[in-house]
Structure formats: C-alpha cells, structure tokens
Amino acid sequence: MISDLSEATPEQLLHASEDRVRMARQVEVDKLELLLAWADLHSGDPQAEPDAVPVRFGGPRLIALGGDATPEVQDLALVEMSIARHESVMATRSALADAFDLRHRLPKVWAGVKAGRCDLWVVRRVARMSRKLDRHQVRIVDDAVAAALDEAPSRILTIAEAKIVEADPVAHAKRISDNQKTKGVWYPKARPGSQIDDTDNTGTTAGVATVFARLDEADAIEHAAMVEHLATTLAEHAPTPVDGEEPLGMDHWRAEAFAMLADPAAVLAFLHGTDDEDAEPEPSPIPAAEIVVHVAQQADGTLGPLARVEGLGPRLLDQVRDLLRRHAHVTLTPVIDLHTGRSVNGYEHPTDVKKRTELRTTGDVFPHATGLFTANGRAPDHDHTVPYDRNGPPGQTGDHNDTPLSRHHHRAKTHLGYTVLQLGPDKWVWGTPHGLHRLVTGSGTTTITRAEYHVLEEQAIVLAGDYAA
Q1: 296: enclosing H helix or E strand
Q2: Euclidean distance between CA atoms 260 and 94, whole angstroms
Q3: 165: nearest Cα among 156, 175, 155, 154
C-alpha cells in the first residue's frame, strides 16, 4: 500500500493500479462464490421438511433460476442474502442465475474468470445471452469464450453471439422470422415543452424531429448506402463556406439526403444534374458495395450454418443470401490466404499485405485495445514494427514488419517511448515507458514479466528474420 500517493513514482502508481484490477476482479468472484455457497445450503426441497407450510399458503418452494442443467434453490432463502448484499431480491436472483450458469454450464469460462482473466460483468452477460441453449448446445459457447477471455469485452461478446447462433441456428432463424413482424416506422410528436427542454428524450425539439425505423436488414443496408451516396453528392455540390465558417459535417448532409428521399423525383433530377424535365438525363453512377464474408468448412466438406459478415457480425447463410440476392451484378474475389507472407523493398505497405494483416488481427493490436477495424470503417495506420531504414536491407516492409494501430495509439507509440517487437504475422510484445509488459495476439492481451519479455525479444529477432521473404 502506498501511504502517500503524491510521493509515488510512476512505476509504483502503475503497478498499484494493476494490483487493484486483480483485487477487484477477485472480490467480484468471491461475492458470487459466497452466493453459490448460500444457494447450496438451501438447495433441499423445503416442502419435504416436517410441518412445512404448503406452497398454496405462501410456504417456501424450490425455483429454477439458471438455464438447463442448473440446480434449484429455495426462493425465500434469497431474501436474507439480498439484505447482506445490499440489493433487491431480484438483483440477487439475477446474480445467482448467472452464477449457476457459469458454474454448471460454462465451467471453462468460470475457471478463466476465477483466474482473473476477465471482468465478471462480461461473462455474466454471456451467461444471460446463452441461457436458452440446452446443456449440450452451450458447450460450444463455453469452449470459444474461454479461449477468448484475454480479449477486449466487445470482442468476447461478439464471439459469444456468434457461437450462440451457431449452437442453435433453428432458434435464431425463428428469432429473425418473429422480428420481421415488428417492422415499422415511427415519427414521434413533440411533447408540450419539448421545444424549450433540450433534454427531452424523444429527440424532437425546436426545429428538428426524430424518425425511428425497424427494417429488414438488407433493406436497411440498401437505404443507408443510398443516403450515403446522396449525402456525399450534396456535400460535393454545396456552396463553399464563407471565411470563418466551418463546413457542414456529413451528419448534416445525411439528414438532408434522408429528407430529400421524400421526393423521389427531386432526387432523380438532382442526381442526373438537372431540374429540366426536357433535358436528356445522364445516368447517375451506382455506388458499389463490398462485403467480406467469412465461412467455415465442416468436417464433411459442407459449409457451416453461420458466416461472419464484416461490419455486421454473425449471420446465418440464408441472411447472407438475402443480402446478395438484391444485386444484379455480384463479383466474387478470391479467398485471401492468411498463411502466406510477402515483403517489398519500398516504404509503403502493399494493399495485399495490409488486407492480410487486418484480416488476421481484426482490430488494433495495442495492448488492451478495443477498436475493430470494421466497426467504424476507419482504416488503421500500418506502422513498421521495426522502423523503416532508407539505407537498410531490402524486404523491410511486409507481413513480418506490420503493426496495425489506431491513430491515437500510433501517436503514443511514436512519441512516448513504447517498445514493440513482432514475433510473427499476428503476435506482438509491448513494453510501456514505465516498465509494464504485454503480449498481444489474435486471442487478446496477456500480462508478461520483464524476464518473459526478454525471452520473447530473442524469439522476435529469429522469427522476424525467418518470416521475411
């Protein structure tokens, strides 16, 4: 314990913060284990006790809280535990349901959390997401999520979502069918006072209105593409701002484009570059769309029921077919072989190298980074792991020397003294300015010691040399 934080060194503050993370995670696990122990003490049928008050007169009974294969617990026994936990009975029930699912249905995930690999709230959400799966189906979720516990929460939940769909594609297809019945478009009316109250949560305030829509996914993608195309064209033809004025952002032009769609004739006239009905219109270029679909081949050679669509997430193959069936012209590009590598003599990373790196990593490889390259459409900075030397040897640029980073993390690496070594096309070791060390792979970020860093440093030299082509 640091007695006076104002006198602590940067190293002491960093290590103390890391210790508190471990301690906080352990405390959360301890709270669930205490709850499980209480439930185990109250797992017998209270109606089997002598002189038990019948259930019809309000007596205690066993209830099931978790998913398939989890034990039952006496309902009234949880009241006293909720008092000890300083929360409502419903909150205690929810925590116990998650705890039952983790211990009995997701044992590998539970072991990883007890080892401190992940915040408890993340796997509790996985437990809730997978609760409707049976005891056999949930195993695929347990295996995949346990292997991903070192990754960022958003990536863990993305993996869990995909595996839940894969475990029961029939249920997911029904979910899709049911959701088709809830489509609609809503135009909320302004409430009295909303023109003055800027905190009105309907989004309808002075001079503007909000529209809500639930559409078929393929329709929504097509609509978004049209709005983006029209907004870009509007922005390109907008008057030049006068001196001192900021140009209007794309959000403004998307709103203008969305409103303009209420008059299709005006949209066509604008895109054709004329308002004269007698003029011969020129065809407007149709924006091309690219989707990247990842599919897995099963042992019998057939494709599995699930695909991952970049920018959208896990989708059934039928959903992918629905996305493609609306287009008259579909171009298939060859599968990119992520096992191959290439190096060049120039400074710029070739497009094929960038593409392979982004597909291997899916996101920013800075320690504990959460950013996914396809989430916001912004391409990463492809930084040379070992700085490029104009007078150095050939083949410096390639898969073996490519660290994809967000711009913010790239700036930190460049200006604050971080060190990074690359062990291969999808593995990096990092050192921070004040002595923290991390290993980053496709499976996430793990803490390593200074000694482990130096061992990996030797491997990095060998592997980088072997990988360069």
Answers
A1: strand 293-297
A2: 47
A3: 175
The model's pTM is: 0.77
Q: What is the pLDDT of residues 368-383, one digit of tens each?
A: 887 766 555 567 888 8
- How far apart (Å, rounded) are the C-alpha atoms in residues 318 and 324? 10
Higher pLDDT, 286 or 22: 22
Q: How far is CA 413 from the centre of its chain?
A: 24
**Greater model confidence, 303 or 448:** 448
Average pLDDT (433-455) is: 89
Count H helices and E strands in the chain, helices first.
15, 15
Predicted local confidence at residue 281, as pLDDT = 47
- The end-to-end CA distance of the chain, in Å, is 51
d(CA 404, CA 410): 9
SS3 assignment, position 53: coil
Q: Which residues are paired to 430 by β-bridges?
A: 420, 438
Taking the C-alpha atoms of residue 97 and residue 118, their distance in angstroms, rounded to an integer, is: 19
pLDDT at 118: 94
- Which residues lie closer than 8 Å to 316 by C-beta, 6 or more apart? 165, 169, 172, 173, 176, 305, 306, 307
Whether residue 145 contacts residue 156, with contact meaning beta carbons closer than 8 Å, is answered with yes
DSSP string, 314-378: EEEHHHHHHHHTT-S---PPPPP-TT---EESSSSPPHHHHHHHHHHH-B--STT---BTTTS-P
Over range 314-331, report the average pLDDT: 74
Residue 77: what residue type? A
More confident residue, 99 or 357: 99
Token code pair at residue 108: 């590998």
Residue 467's pLDDT is what? 47
User: From the centroid of its chain, how far is CA 255?
Assistant: 27
SS3 2: coil
Q: What percent of the chain has pLDDT over 70?
A: 88
Q: From the centroid of its chain, how far is CA 61?
A: 40
Indicate the residue type of 409: H
